[in-house]
Structure of Alkene reductase:
Amino acid sequence: MTTTTESLLSPYRLGEFDLPNRVVMAPMTRYRAAEDGTPLPIVAEYYAQRASAGLIVTEGIWPSREGQSGWRLPGLETAAHVAGWRTVTEAVHAADGRIVAQLMHGGRQGHPLNRLLGDVPAGPSAVPAPGPVHVRDGGKAEAVTPREMTRAEIRRTVADHVTAAHNALAAGFDAVELHGANSYLIHQFLADNTNLRTDEYGPGTLENRLRFPVELVTAVAEAVGPHRLGLRLSPGNPQFGMYEADPAPVYRALLAELDGLGLAYLHLTDNDDYPALAALRPRWSGPLIANVGENRDATDRARGEAVLAAGLADLVSYGRAFIANPDLPERFAAGAPLTPVDETHLYGQTATGFTDYPRLTDQPTPERPTPSERPKAPHRV
């Protein structure tokens, strides 16, 4: 493996974009959408606060109501969704940032109580996710057994992603990322225990197992341009009951199918049981974003720098660190301590734990006391 002297704070040319640094904001679900899936006004402030990232990848956005996995998750299906996201992209661009929309189809992930359609979700096979699941009334319910998607539904799902990708560009996003990781639809077609089909989309042959991911990525790339499309994968990630006995041949073959498309980037999550970065970096000729914090301690600067130094990636994505540190690149540059995450307010509809984390320049110092410590101006009448 080659090594590099590039650092997290060095610039990077990603397609047509000049990134000021290699610190990427990872996608993170925050549940700040209206009931119809339109992002709340505070979402624009949230992402604009983090515009110093080299690149922002949004929380997962459902491409169609059939793909909705949770209540108050955002969508990109309707004119209202497009208008809502346009306020977000305009705010980020005004702050000199770059932002990518992550399209996330839930597949089997979902519950009738959490879906606008009120129906049972569909996935590759009728295999339920582990339960119980959180539902919109604040309680919990047992997971439902999903329907097996028909061939017609698979074709419609591909078309829905194409439409949503067009909607993303219409909303002002700089690019689109397909969520093929962490137990969502693409991952469900790839994994051993969630794809039990016996047709041409089943695991009978490696070609069949890869058919849906390849068809989906190819269709969206042709629709919006491969230079505006990224893909996130998490080989071997056991999250939400996923099982892959041997990820290596599956993901090697998948990258062989997709590498020639000229995608904007591959966003790859490492795993303790399968060293995806080391195994797959040599098989990907385009830009690669690494995520090394999934199911592990939050990534710090040293771990990110080590990934770049080892030549395992071109950029590194940060999740929890960006929640509590909207100016994360500036903190890295200053060698400043990171604010810890308040995990009691990760989800909800308010600004608390969302847009109220201070920037480094907002924090009190002996030279810059807090407002309550500052001498009051004399009262004038």
In short: The radius of gyration is 21 Å. The chain has one domain: 12-373. Residues 12-373 form a domain with the TIM Barrel fold (CATH 3.20.20.70). The chain has ten helices and 14 strands.
